[in-house]
Every structure is written in structure tokens, then in C-alpha cells.
Amino acid sequence: MTLTPPQRAFLDRRPDTPCLGFDVEVVRDRYRALAASLPGVELYYAVKASPLPEVVAALAEEGCRFDIASVGEMELCEAQGVPGEAMSFGNTIKKTDAIRHAAKAGVDHFAFDSEEELAKLSEDAPGSIVMCRLLSEGAGAAWPLSKKFGCSHERVTELLLDAAAAGHRCGVSFHVGSQQMVPEAWDVPLAQVSLIAEALDAAGQRLELVNLGGGFPSRYVEPTPDVDRYGEVILEAVDRHLGWLSPRLVAEPGRALVAEAGVLVSEVVLASYKEHTDGVRWVYLDVGVFTGLIETLGECIRYPIVTELDGTPTGPCILAGPSCDSLDVLAERSPVDLPLDLREGDRVALLSTGAYVSSYSSVGFNGFDPLRVEVL
User: Fold this and answer.
1) Which residue in 69, 226, 319, 376 is deepest, having the highest Cβ count within 10 Å?
2) 3-state secondary structure string, 153-193?
3) ∠ CA(316), CA(318), CA(320), 5° rounding?
4) Quick check: 168 and 132 in contact, CB under 8 A?
5) Any residues with CB less than 8 A from the CB of 224 and at least 6 apart, and which?
6) Is residue 339 within 8 Å of residue 307, measured between CB atoms?
7) Which residues pair with 248 in a beta bridge?
8) What is the pLDDT of residues 157-209, one digit of tens each?
9) What is the mean pLDDT of the chain?
């Protein structure tokens, strides 16, 4: 993986560590590539992936819309000049005040997956487009999603018929899991969406919108299918299952737009062997699970790593963070090959750290400062 000139200049400048350098121009490039691969699909950036004002501003300039999970994210978008009608409230779990606040600001797309949430929407966002979330297993994803969100296609049908009766326009949303490595993963939920659409049609109602969700991957350590492959496979599946309906299509990319924009520079705190016979060193960095790298839990995400000693002999290393907590281990089941001469004070850069890093950093666990971010 190649660093951009601004990212390389950031590392050469040797900022105090840990620090995340973020190249917004990468976000623009990734947005254009994904938009080109999904013609006719409206893209709503999942703000939670990297809620930097500069990211929102750049994507707004590109014509992107925004998927928000809270009033705080809505206000962040508003501060960058994004109108409410360009936002979708994708969180299925919302306080009544949040729904009321968003509807007043012009937000008219809301996700839900229960009759209780639908009742709140009917009361405080009448006539809005409501997207009932379909349960998806997430097989093939680095972060498969749990049963916290979504319900069966039979239940989605029942809820959307209730929504239509309450005066809402109807949509379906689903999510195939974060960092989805299998482009064909969208096929099964789209087949279920077709069943929902047919049931609504038989009842005299129309499924107006299909939200393809997120899951579009970024490049980390494992080879990733090209973005054009995702567009080709997904749009073919849409045509096969829903060509008769021609619904409005939207998607909610997050990681795919911002991950490669980030480079996280860290410093070695300690490199040591537990036992002389182990053959595997422990390398502790000044950044870890609680300062932004929570996606390394379970080694779900493995970041590409470059060091100042690349090109010298390497050996297997267990990578860990600096906190006094046993969860703060970044790679143990699959050790990382790192230079054997790494010592305290040497610099290590983790690439593709633009997504779900700065926003996941704790506010001061163990007394460590929150992760600093520099927009390049």
C-alpha cells in the first residue's frame, strides 16, 4: 500500500505520538470511485466512520448525502451547511426527542425495526420515509453484525403495511456486515427484499426505497475485490430481484470512503521477550485498543504496518497497546512480522486507519490522552 504525498510528509515531520494524520483528498477519490461503480445509487456517508468536519464538508461538496446515528451527528452536518433533507437517520434506536428534533430540521428518512419505534415515528415524523431494517447474517464480513438490528422479512412486511396505513412512504434497509469481502453477499437480502415488495404490491402498497446499507470494504492486509466488482455484482442482483419494481436505491458507505485516508503514527514503548525460549517478542506501542484501535479486538481488522527499520531482518511479534488492561492486545493469534531491531522510541505507522479510529478513542482511560488528529 502506497502512502500519499501528504501522508508521507506527515510521517517525515515526526509529529508527537500517537497521532492520526488524515488526508481528505483520499476521501474525495474514494467517493468518486464508489459513485462511478454504483450509477443510479444515492450515497449517504455513514458519519460515524469518521466524524471529522473536514470530511463532511468535502463529501458535501462532492454531492454526497449523509447517514446519521444521532442528533450530534446531525448538528455536525448542519454546521457544514448540509440541509436536513440530505440526511437519513439510520439508527433504529432513537429517543422521541431525537426524532422530533430531526424532523423539525428537515430530516425525512428514518430507519426502524419495531412497532414501538414506528409509533414514535408516526407521532413525531408523520409522512416520512421509513426504512424497516431487514436482519442480515453478515457472513463474509470482518465485523458480522449481531441481532441487535433488524427482523425477518415476514416481520418487515407486517411493519411496512402498518407504516403505510399510518401514512408513511415505505422502504427497506439492510447491512451485510462491516468490511464485507464477498460482493455476492448482497444477493440473499435482495431476494428477501423482493418477497417483501411482492407482498406489499399484493396489498396495494409500493416499496419506494431500498437501502443497500454499508459494508463496502477498504484495503487492509488481505486482498480486497475491486470496487467495480462490487458495483457490477450488486447492480446485477438488484436488476434480477427488483427489476420489475425499479425502486429508488441508496447506500451508506463509511469505511470504504475514509479508511485509507488515515495513517496513525505511534512509538514503541517496549519490545521484550516473556521467555527466552518463546521466539516471539512482545512489542508495545503508545497507541492501542482504548486509544482508537478497538477494531483489532478479535483481530477482526489487521492494519498494514510500516516502520523506520523496514528492510532489516524481521521476526514474529505480538503487538499490544500501552494500557494496564489485558484486552489491550492488537495481534496475538496471528503475530506480525516486524524488524527484530525495533526498540523503545522507534516509530511505527499503521495504515488505513481513517475509519472507526479517532471516534473510538477513549476520553482518558488509564490517564492516556484521547488520540490527536491532524487533517493534512
Assistant:
1) 319
2) HHHHHHHHHHHHHCCCEEEEECCCCEEECCHHHHHHHHHHH
3) 150
4) no
5) 181, 217, 218
6) yes
7) 209
8) 999 999 999 999 999 999 998 898 899 999 999 999 999 999 999 999 999 99
9) 95
